[in-house]
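ESCALATION

Customer reports they have been waiting on this structure for their group meeting. Please prioritize. Original submission:
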Amino acid sequence: MKKTIEKVVSRPRHAGMVGDGFRVYNYIPRGGIEQHRLSPFLLMDFAAAHYFSPTDTPRGVDAHPHKGFETVTIAYKGSVAHHDSAGNSGVIHPGDVQWMTAGSGLLHKEYHDAQFAAEGGIFEMVQLWVNLPKAYKLVNPHYQALTADRIPKVLLPNDGGEVNVIAGSFNGQNGAATTYTPVNLFDIKLHAKGQVSATIPATHNTALLVVEGNVTVNDRPVHQHDFVLFNNDGTSVEIKADTDAVVLLLSGTPIEEPIASYGPFVMNTQDEIVEAIKEFQRGAYGVLA
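Update from on-call: job pushed to the front of the queue and completed.
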């Protein structure tokens, strides 16, 4: 049985800037889709394809804290570098995914990779925030650097395209990421007239973003940059490409715990939020220039 569609949300009218390097449209939480409704997903920012001119000073967002959740950055076009207060650093390129578990807290900064900044070009990415259950909110911060060659690919029949299985399981193929709760994250690239069917538990909170192109989802036409929220029924999501298309399909088991959030901190109670702010103010997350 196909999942029914609860709503289709068009791209927000205006983009916002995160720092000076990330021109994003926010989809979660927005338009009546609150964090509990799409748990474990807390936030989705979509940096739709945008040209950045060359510069000697890489654009980005300066040092900022995170605690109590994970950030997942999916690179489509352009390259992003990062550093954190634990001494970790790296660069993600098109096809790569950075899965950062902030856990007990750290300082982090992200910016355009130096070569991309110097040459300029089209930049396109998605960032998700994924909640951690209470039992894991204070795990030590760590990363999963999921380069394109480490992410399993499932080729679709009749030259329909491919599915990059970032997390979860697609047609028996397990994804590259290790997750704290059940999560599916599929980067789907379809050729025109290609199609794909994904089996997802009825209990999962499920949504998709049309990154590029136009598609038909469970018999309903959906356009570029539309966001589709599914009801918690059925087990099948069928996508047919009207044009070449890129679709990000996400689902997960809801974390049935209170959500207390304030900026870059996501905990279970307001007292824990206050403590996180105090930790940040006294330098408990380290130093990052």
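Sent to customer with the following note: Residues 96 and 147 are 4 Å apart (CA to CA).
Escalation resolved.
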